[in-house]
Amino acid sequence: MNTKNCFIGQSGGPTVAINASLAGVITQCQEEGFTHIYGMVNGIQGLLEDHFMDLGTTFNSEEKIDALKHSPAMYLGSCRYKLPTVSDDKDTYDLLFKKFNDLEITDFFYIGGNDSMDTVAKLAAYGETINSPIHFIGIPKTIDNDLMGTDHTPGFGSAAKYVASSMLEIAYDSSIYKLDAITIVEIMGRNAGWLTAASALARTECNDAPDLIYLPEVVFDKERFLKDIEEKFKEKSSIMIAVSEGIHDENGNFLDSGDSQQYDAFGHPIHFGTGKVLENICKEHFGCKVRSIELNVLQRCAMHIASKVDIDESFFIGKKAVETALADHTNVMMGVKRTSNDPYTAECIYSNVQDIANLEQKVPAEWITKEGNDITQELYDYLYPLIQGEIAITYKNGIPSYIDIAHLKEN
Question: Is 142 annotated as contributing to ligand binding?
Answer without folding.
Answer: yes
